[in-house]
Write a structure and sequence with these properties.
It contains five helices and four strands; from the N terminus they run ααβαβαβαβ. The chain is α+β, with helices and mostly antiparallel strands. The longest helix has 44 residues.
Length: 137
């Protein structure tokens, strides 16, 4: 048996005005999310540069790269999302100071931070960072 009630007809066939309003609201929400992501990406770049200065000035880093989603965003390969972290790779920090440096970054940033020492990581990761990462210091 087919339901031909007016209530069912409205649900099955929304009026054009209701659908247009829904689509417009969805586009506004999507645009707002993209604006938030772009603002977060700009803030992440500023933060990565600030953290690279700390690593260089306070811990003796000779080179710092950003890699992962932040670097891939610049290259148009991936979006830096609101929940993305900042991935940094470093050379030149003495092994005995590495965790102090990492702790300093974590304590001083609103972002989640991943820090790797290129001396102690796998050769494949080292090559990937050097090939695809973006030097900061």
């Amino acid at each position: 048996m087919v339901d031909t009630s007016a209530e069912h007809a409205e649900c099955a066939h929304p009026d054009a005005g209701g659908l247009d309003a829904y689509v417009a609201a969805w586009h506004r929400r999507l645009a707002a999310e993209r604006e938030q992501e772009e603002a977060r990406t700009r803030a992440a770049w500023q933060e990565a540069e600030r953290l690279a200065r700390i690593l260089r000035d306070d811990f003796g880093a000779t080179r710092v790269w950003v890699f992962g989603s932040l670097a891939q965003h610049v290259k148009g390969l991936r979006r830096f999302r609101l929940d993305s972290d900042i991935d940094l790779a470093v050379e030149g920090i003495p092994a005995e100071r590495f965790f102090a440096a990492y702790g300093r970054l974590l304590a001083s940033s609103e972002f989640s931070i991943d820090l790797i020492d290129l001396v102690d990581c796998s050769p494949a990761l080292r090559e990937s960072v050097r090939r695809d990462g973006i030097p900061l210091a």
